[in-house]
Task: structure prediction
Amino acid sequence: MHPHSKSRGELPSPLDRIGVAAVLARYPVHRLSRQGAMPIAIRETGSDGQAIVSWNVGWHSEYGQGGLLAYKLDTLIVNRKLDEAGRPVPHILRLGGLKEIARNLGVATHNTRAIREALHQNASAYITAKVRYKARDGSERWIEIGSTRYAVVFTGERLPDGRTADAVYLVLNDVYREIVDHAQTRPLDYDYLRGLPPAAQRLYELLSYPIFGALAHGRPEARMPYSEFCTYAPQTRYAEFWRMRQQMEKLHRPHRTSGYIAGIEYEPTTHRDGRPDWTLVYEPGTKARAEHRAFTSKGGLVATRAELPLGAPKPPPAASAQAATSPEPEPTGLERELVAHGVTRSVAAELVRDFPADRIRRQVEVMDWLRETKPKRVKDVGAYLADAIRKDFAPPAGFRSRAERAEAETTARAQQEQQEQARHAKAREQAERDRVQAYWEALPPERRTALDAAALAGADPADRAAYAAATAPPVRRMLQAGLRDAHIRRLLGLPAAD
Result:
């Protein structure tokens, strides 16, 4: 039984702690959405618009982007083996047989093909990154790489040291090993982690930073921007409150049940890109407090929320003094929007100065559409957008503006509502006809004769005249049935038939 299936706040004893490299746990490698590929491209800029953090993940055309199974394999199997290996980690790391890995992930042991594919996805994930992080000794280090993390060797294949592999092995790349060896670790409850669905597991990994920081500093609540979670999960980011809340409540549910979260509030705000955002305010629960006590009692450095992400290195005193005497003007709203799309501040200021605002907004809208519908088409968003504004690119085939899409959605919703109303009306009419028919069929013969006479007597004079004038038996029967149905409807309190 996993901890989140126990009573609120109850923890296993002893707690099964796993330490993961904090900087690697923060940045995503896998998509957690079940629908299609999701681009992973994170860029954090300084006040000058230059990138101080960048993180991009590409994937192999044959194996595709790592998804839910690849994520579970990386976080539960690989991280566990790395934690158990100690420091420094070995160059060659034994994972175990495919069936053993499947069992540990809760996957059917005959489905080793899926495990093999997930291993290929993880091994072929190509990361280009520039990230600063704190090491175990408190010093600052930089990741500047364009590389995969490790290679995978399957049973029967030859390892770099000449041995024949008796299981699945990983051959760790040197840069990856260096990060794992020196990065501060984030302690997590392994049993709790492995019992969570993937998206809720990712929330636990990211939320552990602000939760740990809040408890370490005696604060009653932990805070995390919704947009930040969507970027680092990664998850679809919604602009409507009800959709955002529906998305997050599903992820919060297991953490509420376990007692990791005692309460959650949503504070509305606006992101720097101008889109709606919310600050997620969490009250740490009994489980979170118990974890904090258990992990801090073990000693050792752990990364708190305040330390991530780290900014650019501090400038020398002379440069700081010069900057203080010559403050850079704050960017305008349109400039901030361009900077948020990867354009440098100087180029953004130039574009806003030289080109009409409607042209800039039109090209930004086209850029957003391209990133949503054709994420692989544009590699450098900032450079492409600046070029599109300068040359006033024509909209690509298939492009529809937000206004056009909103109008199409409104029309589609109206049509759907009309169709739904028509279906309801048809079902209601059929139900009324069924009641009338059931009423008639339940009457004995003598009551039927009396009802027909009453129906004729109570009918509209014009309808009675038409019935009296009819000579053909089929016509008289049809008219009589109509008078009868109308009379029964009145008896049952139903509206007249259309």
In short: The radius of gyration is 33 Å. Confidence is low (pLDDT under 50) at residues 1-13, 299-328.
